[in-house]
């Protein structure tokens, strides 16, 4: 058998051997295994073996087959090691902050150190995560620039810091513990506790009472004397509060002694008068810029900065205030020289070795300012979302959003800050980003001075007054309306070489509007249209024409301007597509010389050399280069950023002769032209087409005129179709610019950032917003008035409401409620269609206001203004005993008895009847009667107007007046309780719920008023007047308390709704404490709820980095679009999941009462660039992306840039919640996005 095995043939193949050779790594060692199989080697042909998993080996050995374990062997079982006792470890003391410091004592004259003394330090336990004080220690060096979302901001300037008592009181108020029901009676672990149930107590036996002691406090019989003294004896004990009537006229006839008493009492008690407010401190101080500053160099012998030119007067005034460390608001026209003020502040900060922050509304403007200031001051840095240059510099340039983030995160840069310069302040009117400016202004600490630079605005003083009250410092307003280069405005109607001279002056440099020029333009247009009709028919073109007509218009215009040497020119066109069309249509136009072409070519070569080869061959790059060589340029948001910068630089050098731009070019650095042309005076603002606002027109027209080069600037409005209306042109060119208006709104980021700091309240932020300024600026006067009314109320004696007067308070409340209900019903009647139809000329009404009490009147005329309807009415009245209408109204006022309240006890003249004509508001009409008189309103009004002249005052009334007065008097006598009136429901057919329910409630109140007992008491009139005065004071006090409280805030309901959303999502708890999800949301700049929910739902963890970036593009892309059908299934599912999460958040918002539907919230997501971003992150060249979407290249670049910033924010959020894998993916996604032309460095930073 052994011989047989020995002589066996070898295996035909090495794989049949019962052995396997395995190489152990790269060490050159091999090992034979008794396993049949192919030999393995190192990479790339195979992998080295790895040791078996310890967990699997342990499970196999001890859990799957434990039979081999010895039953009685305990040597390897659990054991206990004896701990070595170390009592000295209990004596370790943690380090504590040093409570004192050494302070040098110096000689007051020489400064020589004389000695040292130890001083105690306060608040040594402060830190960046517990305190808002500037005295807290700095945070980590790595967080000194941007801060950290977990750090507290510094205390906002102008806001009172709460004391320990205030904080404890606030916490107790927020807890809202019910001490009746929520007390714990049984401690944990006990079976019984404290019983708080009421116990029966034994009542002591009744004893003897002294009747004399019981009657001692009472003054039996004194009540009648007091009443007699109050009514008939002004000098009595209670008569001191009832002085004699100030009216010296004799008393009118009356049939009741009670009426006489009422009139005396009513004139005795004066209505509530508010005390005069305290003289308010002036926070906004206007500076006179008309008088020259002759002693400028005496006041500032060594300026911090000097220019090669002499500063203007307004610039010198601003510099003087900067030297005094004052805050200034400089409002001036474009190119007036506001940057001089900013430059001096930067130089001043460098001199003081402090820091300055220059904020701008857009990142492109920040880059431009960095280049300009870097050339002037070397120590300048730039901070944007994707770049940091010289963050340690004395002057930092950033967008307002960056500064807001630094303020909320407690950046230590704020400590050294001396100036914050806000450029383009009128950008606060932006509906989307204006709130950021208000947040920053509110959150700035007290030691920071503010410089505001803006175009001319009509309410600069109001805005400065708000900031002054906000920061409790004076703001000096420096406004100048003078332009350094005056402007001339023209209308151009030409469209051919023959008509290129049709340029008509409309507004000259002195501000005179020329109607002759307007009518000349109209005639020129009419003449051309008539010739067109003779040639092509009577039909006249009403539109502005197509590309061919536009080309003819611009060729004729540019030929005229070139002849007049009025190039370069900026053509403002309010559409990206029209900009490209108009520039591309001028193929035959060449405006540059050979030397200029050479300079343009070299500049383009140098700038485009930083791009990769395929990017330099992009269609937009080639087309823009061809235009620039001919002196043409295009500038709008669809242009690639690097191309926009090339166009701007060439334009500033004078090499671009004609620039077609949108209105964004008007905001930014000083790039003036010789001429500005408006392609149209109408634009689309996102919702509808409208005419340009005066502020928009002035901002763009201000680009005309180069200071020091042009005597005047030229502004031309093209009239391609009909000439615009003269009124529209006058309003646009000479109207007032738009006022600075608050765009303050609540955001979840703002709410969470403030809720995480106990000492700050969202209500305080809302109180200090510009939107609340009109109602909050009189707070001090309200507080003073409240204090005075409190003293007055304490001085008043309580009215006697005993016996029959027990229901006097209820009677007063019934009467007030009935009056309010009737006023509400009457207002709804007057606002209704049928009510307005009934209030026509001749209708008899009942008039009730301060001057007339239930007096009949007949309507003579109704105004046509529906917003503020006025009814001119002839009203019955007495012969006036005094000319003062307030005294007339006071004399006619009465104590309301049931007959007065239930019906209309009409006014009847006591003596000779007279009449007057009054202009009534809708609220003055107490009732609409069913009676209609035939009156001649025009004659009556003419007669009344005539009698206002002294010489016709005693003329007898005309027949129309006499007839109307007699008819009204007859109705008043025939219906003393009031004539029949129109029922709102039955006659006027009003079906409003408020009208129906109000009518039912009014009838119920009338029954209660009829059954009141207080009206039968002889003391009712005087006590009612006393009660009314007291109640009026209390009502005014309640109104003032409401105005001073948080309940009067306009956005308070929305704040509660948003907090409820955060509470539902788990971002804050019931006590308002911010939880982990809320702290994550604080780090997001936009879509904070959606991003946080996606993070906590693990919706992104399973995706690849390029897929995550593609999905997140739907949150930053702002143009609507369809994601397309070519997306991978993973992306399609991801889009659906993101939309599902957004829908869930929208449903929660809608359930909490927010005024935003689910469709509107989900509609904010636009997934039109998902495929583009996905392919870009996978490495596709930018030149191939154009075929995937029709979106302009500039918008694609902007989306990817914002997307990279969002990925960085999510990276930090993922690390905060302990998701390092997702954080690494977000870092990878940001890296994949940041490449090539999309993130080419700005030319301004090179």
Automatic annotation (TrEMBL):
- Main subcellular location: cytoplasm
Q: Which GO terms describe its biological process?
A: nuclear-transcribed mRNA catabolic process, 3'-5' exonucleolytic nonsense-mediated decay
One GO molecular function term of this record is:
hydrolase activity
List the catalysed reactions: ATP + H2O = ADP + phosphate + H(+)
UniProt xrefs under Pfam families: DEAD, DSHCT, Helicase_C, MTR4-like_stalk, MTR4_beta-barrel, Ski2_N
What transmembrane ranges does the database entry give? none
Q: Can you give the residue ranges of the Helicase C-terminal domain?
A: 585-755
Q: Which residues belong to any copy of the Helicase ATP-binding domain?
A: 319-475
Please state what the protein is called. Helicase SKI2W
Organism annotation: Hipposideros armiger (Great Himalayan leaf-nosed bat)
Source species taxonomy: Eukaryota, Metazoa, Chordata, Craniata, Vertebrata
